[in-house]
Amino acid sequence: MKKKFIAFIPARKGSQGIKDKNLIKIGTKKLVEYTFKEVNKIKGISCFVATDDQRVKNIAKKYNINCEYQRPKKVSNSQTPMIETLYDFNKKFKKKIDYDYVIILQPTSPLRSKKDIQKAIQEVNKKKLLSLTSISKSIEHPYESIFFKNKRYKPFFSGLKNFSCRQDFDKRSFFINGAIGIIHKTLIEKKKTEHKIRHGFVLMKKINSLDLNDVEELEIIKKILKR
């Protein structure tokens, strides 16, 4: 039996790094619109926005994105785990709509494409996964990461073997980019984000994986979208 997928776009009001990040204009569109536009290209998938911001709802309606879910304050702060919001959504909508999987699409990944989302869905169907996370190749060598303590630096990793050269790093180091997440409804009901065994990954290009968190990343994304 063909599995049914719905898309879920969390877009709460406010942000710490950039004020009103979801509504910041990049090129001809506001940030959240890039996700609305791409998900609309995929046939047969209903899309829901989870927001406490009326401005985001007004934009979502223009793209025929479902705004029925009223995201309560208890799951709308910066410290709320995503699974808590999904659990609340599922509790309210599981009897209203028929679905097996929820695709989580963060608006902060405006370079993620329709093909990326479709590839993730295909991976879930092909391998009969219950959860999936998108990844990309690491940009920096993880063993070159440092932190400062009492004005002195310390490496995050040291003394580890068989993974020190660039060639090993290029083949084996990946980053969870947060662009796409897929979770089966049964896991959401247990407040779990992934299955221990039937969990998979989908590889995305680095350029599609950029996540907007600060002003510097905003400038990079603006330049890419102007091409």
What does this structure look like?
- It is a single chain.
- The protein has 227 residues and is of the alpha/beta class.
- 29% of the residues lie in helices and 22% in strands.
- The chain has seven helices and ten strands.
- Strand 2 and strand 3 form a beta hairpin.
- The radius of gyration is 19 Å and the shape is globular.
- The mean pLDDT is 88.
Please give a handful of descriptors for the protein shown:
6-stranded mixed β-sheet, two-stranded antiparallel sheet, alpha/beta, 7 helices, single chain, 227 residues
Q: Any chance you could write out the topology, listing elements then pairs?
A:
Blueprint: E1 5-10, E2 25-26, E3 29-30, H1 31-39, E4 46-50, H2 54-62, H3 82-93, E5 101-104, H4 114-127, E6 131-137, E7 146-149, E8 152-155, H5 166-172, E9 174-184, H6 185-188, E10 199-203, H7 215-225
Q: What is the 3D form?
A: globular
Which structural class do the helices and strands define?
alpha/beta
Radius of gyration using CA atoms only: 19 Å
Percent helix among the residues? 25-40%
The largest sheet, given as strand count, sense and whether it forms a barrel, is: 6 strands, mixed
Question: How much of the sequence is in beta strands?
Answer: 15-25%
**How many DSSP helices?**
7
- Cross-sheet strand order for the largest sheet: 4-1-5-9-6-10
- Secondary structure: number of strands: 10
The helix/strand order is EEEHEHHEHEEEHEHEH
Low confidence ranges? none
Q: How far do the termini sit from each other?
A: 42 Å
Overall average residue pLDDT: 88
